[in-house]
Every structure is written in structure tokens, then in C-alpha cells.
């Protein structure tokens, strides 16, 4: 029993490190967070960091991006499964992001976008993880659009526009300390969805 109780502690340390990385990178960016901060925020012993992440901070960042990507992907898939009308789906997705950002007092950005913009060409492994995350979310948006009846090319265009609108709204909302950019983005996306569904979009 003592052995079974001891085993999760190492797993807990790894989970705490990933959770702390998500929080800290969202608020301060990759370069703004040091290993000492990750250890302090996670409560993990120093030895556990390099035990679980021999690649150091970059490896932790990869794990954090994957965690955030998976969680957002799961939420999007669950909402798509509801079979909501376009207006309801768009409002629901953007409102969820707006509420989470507001709850953090506009401190927490999107870890994927932050690391993608900050690291650029400096870390190919991180760039690949951010690309994969964005593609995952776009795939979900496109699947929702196809379920509404959009043609394939229109669904792909809409998905890209929706992702861009969300990331732009996050940045603007943090700068303005206001959720208004999400409301404006939702209005524009609903109009775009109506146009595509009516066959009057760019490929119509």
C-alpha cells in the first residue's frame, strides 16, 4: 500500500508542472517565465523537473501546449456534438472564451498564440506544436460549419476566419480590458456564416 501511495506523487509533480506552465505562459509568455518560477508555482521539487522533462523548459512548454490544445479541442467537439444552429454555436464558443478571459481579469492570453508569436523561428519544436494546435481547432470549426451545410471550401475558409477572429479578440480584449471585441467578432462571424450558407460567400 505504501508503494502504491508513493507512486502518484511523481505523476502529481509532472501534472503540477504542466498546469503551472499553462498558467504562467498564458500570463507572462515563454521568455517571461523561468524554471525557478515554474518550480515555485507548481510546488514540485527541483529534481522532478528534469526527471519528468529532461529537455527543460522547452519540453514543459510542449506539454503545456498539448494540454491546452487537447482541452480546447474537447470542449469544441462537445459543443459541435450538440448540433447547435450557427448563431448559437458561434455565440457559445466566443462567450466561453470571453468569460474565461474576464475571470482572469484579462491576464490570461492564449498559450498557443503567445508562444507561436514569441518564439517564431527560434524553436522549431514549439512552432510545430503551435501549428498542430491551431490546425486541431480549425478542424473542429470546419466540422461544425460542414454540419450546418457549408461547402467544403467555405467551411475551411470560415474555420480559418473564426480562429483568427478569436485570437484577435483575445489580444484586443487584453489590451482594452474589455470583452467587447468578442461580441464584435461574434457579430461578424455570424454574418459570414449566413453569407456562406446562402451561397453568397467568396466561392458562391
Written description of the protein model:
With 204 residues, this protein is an all-alpha fold. It has one domain: Tetracycline Repressor, domain 2. The protein is 79% helix and 0% strand. It is built from 9 helices and no strands. The radius of gyration is 19 Å and the shape is elongated. The chain starts with a helix and ends in a 7-residue tail after the last helix. The N terminus and C terminus are likely disordered.
Major beta-sheet overview? none
For this entry, what is the oligomeric state of its chains? single chain
Name the CATH homologous superfamily: Tetracycline Repressor, domain 2
**What structural category do the secondary elements indicate?**
mainly alpha
Number of domains: 1
Backbone shape = elongated
How much is the average pLDDT? 89
Second-tier CATH architecture: Orthogonal Bundle
Short characterization:
The chain is an all-alpha fold and about 200 residues long.
SSE layout:
Elements: H1 2-28, H2 35-42, H3 46-52, H4 57-80, H5 86-103, H6 111-119, H7 124-148, H8 152-176, H9 180-197
Helix pairs in contact: 1-2, 1-4, 1-6, 4-7, 5-8, 5-9, 6-7, 7-8, 8-9
